[in-house]
Specification:
By secondary structure, the chain is mainly alpha-helical. It contains 2 helices and no strands.
């Protein structure tokens, strides 16, 4: 009988190299407005899952979608600025 063994580390095993780097933490902080706006939209949608949405619910979802779109546009504009080639370089 052959035994099946895993080749991955245990889930609870942590090493120093598994911690996020400063660059990764900065990227998460940069994306945090979009992440929070996405959570707000999900919260608004979850509220309406077990009932017929009221006008207030519809407005809440619409506002959350606009906030998410604004946050994602801002993130795209910020990350896009660093990737454009410089003029005259």
């Amino acid at each position: 009988m052959d035994h099946i063994v895993t080749v991955q580390d245990a889930v609870t095993a942590f090493a120093d190299f598994m911690e996020p780097t400063d660059a990764e933490l900065d990227a998460i902080e940069l994306e945090m407005p979009a992440i929070l706006a996405d959570v707000d939209l999900l919260d608004a949608q979850i509220i309406t899952m077990d009932r017929t949405p009221t006008e207030l619910d519809v407005r809440r979802i619409r506002r959350a979608r606009r906030r998410l779109l604004t946050a994602r546009c801002g993130l795209a504009n910020r990350t896009g600025d660093g990737m454009l080639p410089e003029v005259g370089a």
